[in-house]
Design a protein that fits this description.
By secondary structure, the chain is of the alpha/beta class. The protein has 25 helices and 24 strands. Among the domains are: about 1-95, no CATH class; about 385-620, Alkaline Phosphatase, subunit A (3-Layer(aba) Sandwich); about 630-730, Immunoglobulin-like, CATH 2.60.40. Strand 12 (about 555) and strand 13 (about 560-565) form a beta hairpin. Helix 14 packs across helix 15 and helix 15 (about 300-310) packs across helix 16 (about 320-345).
Length: about 725
């Protein structure tokens, strides 16, 4: 507001005088010059020589420009500018206290008792403030300098924030900061002062005494996307004492080391069967708070779930269908939690082992129920892909290799689009629950086969228009009505890296979510997410934990199953009869532990547990609510039988010019040669009823044209391009 008042005075004088002298004997009003319009030329005055030079420039080079002479002396001390002073082109700022009080009285009708320092401070901080703010400052209600407006920026960038303050503001700010941290004021650099404030914040978080403005600033800092990284650097460089009880620090502290110590306390208590309620309560309070979220490890919530998970309702389960529902709605969350704990603590097996043992106790209750079901286990996986493609809806199926149901749940749980409707259907995998068997069943093969192309041919025999390709080949030019996308990364990394491969699964979850969003953008209305099998985390194993090799003649001994030609005398194993490749009998242990084999342990599949056999067949649907102007390729028949070396793509916008609701749409025209886009920079703006014809040369293997919305990248229309089989008439001439 002070800038507005100052410019009012400047404008009033310059309306009558082309030259204006501003005197500021104490230099306290210089900050007002930044409010001047750019078309006013400022000439500083320091001595008589500069007066002569400034007067010369004003009457020559700047003769057609309004000129302001700024002098750090009283008007009576000027020599060569006196004629401008005497003619009335003068604004006196020698007493800034009086000037500000006068302007306040003119604006509010009230006098103020604020001291000169407070008035100057308020003036320098008044940019963007209105008359009500000045009134509140003048009445002593509002402090002109609010620490909360400055402190966070200062801690984030001390040097640059200091440069934004002049001496008056800095002195007040520094005094307020030292009062806040209850330290004696010292004259030191901005960086050193900021470090001192941060030290106090961290100390008070550690002894749980932080409150008020310091706590508020800490929360703003920790939760700031832009500034949190500087806080992290302070935290990383802070030397933590060794004798701190991690259960007594503030629940929103930023120290990973304390979280690690808490987990070690919990692990040790579990190991010796001691009381854990105090530790769990602290973890619960820490995870419950949404503050300083970026400084709380994700595995902490997984540890809380593991620590508080209770098995309920298993006694009422009498069928595999019941246990599949129970697993997907309840127990899958525990499997996700344990997987994330494995990822975070795999390199500290002493801490991890008691947590794994606690999980094993809970999992054994589930397995006891699973193996106690009286009915016969009937796989429902066969033909699942064929069935999903049976309607006319534009459908894409993502077939993952080794997608455990809990991972599928984590994937769809992260989809935030409210227009997506999710049906969490499940199926039972064929046995053994391995890739060649599960994939053969999914694609409708009569017998299991290791040949992927044979499996694809089986599907194509039933669904002739289906396109099958790897998920990473999906692109904006994908236009198939029925699409199957293969994704084998999860199983591959599990088999190669075992437990270490779990670290990659979070990335796979995000990748699959992004591909699902892309498929909807491409116009697919139904997406099915399924798999050939799940897997178990066998974890940290001693030899005594493993299942012994069965006696008898074995065709194959795998980590999770046994194949034989003749029956075995193995009453402790589950026997299934039926031809599977060269075997007549399959055997499974009533456990999630592997048989003693030469294979790597940690990750395994092929056995008979809920984690391996209850597979997702999640269906995601979205209703089209596109209210934009419809645009189509109107000559598709011609494009499928091009004659000559050129072809024309004809675009037609629906509606008529009077259509007020869908007045215009910007579209991009893309041309593809196979999976490679060869033209993709052509943008058109179309109005209702408008037609556009675009001609191209038939070259570079172009075989498809695709229209997408420029703003959303949503696929609008597409058409294949091919030459006519009849002889090109151009060849006759």
């Amino acid at each position: 507001m002070i800038g507005f008042w100052f410019n009012e005075d400047i404008g009033r004088i310059l309306r009558e005088h082309r030259y204006l002298v501003v005197t500021d004997a104490n230099g306290e009003g210089e900050f007002l010059l930044k409010y001047l319009p750019e078309d006013i030329k400022q000439l500083p005055i320091s001595n008589e020589y500069s007066e002569i030079e400034a007067k010369y420039l004003a009457e020559s080079k700047f003769a057609d420009t309004s000129v302001l002479f700024y002098a750090r002396k009283k008007a009576i001390q000027l020599t060569f500018l006196q004629e401008y002073v005497q003619t009335g082109g003068l604004l006196v700022l020698d007493d800034m206290e009086a000037y500000i009080k006068q302007k306040l009285f003119e604006a509010t009708g009230k006098n103020t008792n604020l001291t000169k320092d407070r008035l100057l401070l308020a003036a320098k901080l008044s940019e963007g403030k209105n008359k009500n703010w000045w009134q509140s400052v003048a009445d002593g209600i509002t402090e002109p300098l609010k620490l909360e407006d400055w402190l966070l920026n200062f801690l984030h960038a001390p040097a640059s924030t200091r440069l934004k303050m002049d001496g008056t503001v800095w002195n007040v700010f520094r005094g307020e900061v030292y009062r806040l941290i209850d330290k004696p004021q010292t004259d030191q650099s901005a960086e050193t002062m900021a470090q001192e404030v941060v030290n106090v914040i961290l100390e008070r978080l550690i002894d749980n005494s932080i409150e008020g403005l310091l706590l508020e600033v800490y929360y703003q800092w920790a939760d700031s996307t832009e500034k949190a990284e500087t806080l992290r650097k302070y935290v990383d460089n802070y030397a933590l004492p060794d004798d701190i009880d991690p259960l007594k620090v503030h629940q929103d502290h930023p120290f990973l080391l304390f979280d690690q110590r808490v987990l070690k306390l919990l692990s040790n208590a579990m190991k010796f069967h001691n009381e854990t309620s105090t530790i769990v309560d602290f973890i619960k309070q820490r995870t419950k708070s949404r503050k300083a979220k970026a400084f709380k490890p994700e595995w902490l919530e997984s540890v809380l779930l593991l620590s508080t998970f209770a098995i309920k309702g298993l006694n009422s389960i009498t069928s595999y269908e019941d246990i599949a529902k129970y697993y997907s709605q309840h127990f899958a969350k525990l499997d996700t939690a344990m997987r994330k704990i494995f990822v975070a603590w795999l390199n500290d097996q002493d801490t991890l082992r008691p947590l794994q043992e606690h999980y094993t106790i809970l999992n054994n209750e589930l397995l006891t129920c699973w193996y106690g079901i009286k009915g016969k286990y009937e796989p429902t996986q066969k033909g699942l892909v064929v069935k999903a493609l049976s309607d006319d809806k534009r459908t894409a199926i993502i077939v993952c290799d080794g997608l455990r149901l809990e991972i599928a749940e984590a994937i769809v749980g992260g989809i935030t689009d409210k227009n997506v409707k999710i049906e969490r259907n499940t199926a039972f995998a064929v046995l053994p629950s391995v890739t060649e068997n599960g994939m053969s069943a999914l694609f409708g093969c009569s017998e299991p086969t290791v040949n992927a192309q044979a499996r694809f041919n089986s599907l194509k025999a039933v669904c002739g228009d289906v396109v099958i390709m790897p998920l990473d080949m999906l692109n904006e030019g994908t236009t198939a009505q029925h699409l199957v996308l293969n994704y084998g990364d999860i199983d591959q990394v599990g088999e190669k890296k075992q437990l270490n491969g779990l670290k990659d699964i979070n990335n796979y979850e995000q990748e699959l979510r992004e591909k699902i969003a892309m498929l909807f953008r491409l116009g697919y209305r139904k997406i099915v997410l399924t798999t050939d099998h799940g897997f178990v985390l066998t974890g940290i194993l001693d030899e005594a934990d493993k299942e012994p090799r069965p006696d008898g003649t074995l065709l194959k001994l795998d980590e999770r199953y046994v194949l034989t030609e003749e029956p075995l005398n193995a009453p402790n194993l589950i026997e299934r009869t039926g031809r599977y490749f060269d075997s007549n009998y399959q055997y499974y242990a009533k456990t999630d532990k592997p048989f003693v084999t030469k294979g790597a342990y940690g990750y395994a599949h092929g056995g008979f547990t809920p984690q391996e056999c209850i597979i997702p067949a999640y269906e995601l649907n979205i209703d089209s609510n596109d209210m934009a102007l419809g645009v189509m390729i109107s000559n598709k028949k011609e494009l499928k039988a091009v004659t000559g070396n050129y072809f024309t793509v004809k675009l037609l916008a629906e509606g008529c010019e009077s259509d007020l609701f869908r007045s215009e749409r910007k579209i991009k025209l893309l041309l593809y040669a196979g999976n490679k886009m060869v033209i993709g920079n052509m943008i058109y703006s179309m109005k209702p009823g408008e037609t556009i014809n675009v001609e191209f040369e038939m070259s570079n293997g172009i075989d498809k044209v695709v229209l997408i919305d420029k703003e959303t990248s949503a696929q609008i229309d597409s058409c294949e391009i091919s030459r006519s089989l009849s002889r090109d008439i151009d060849d006759l001439f």
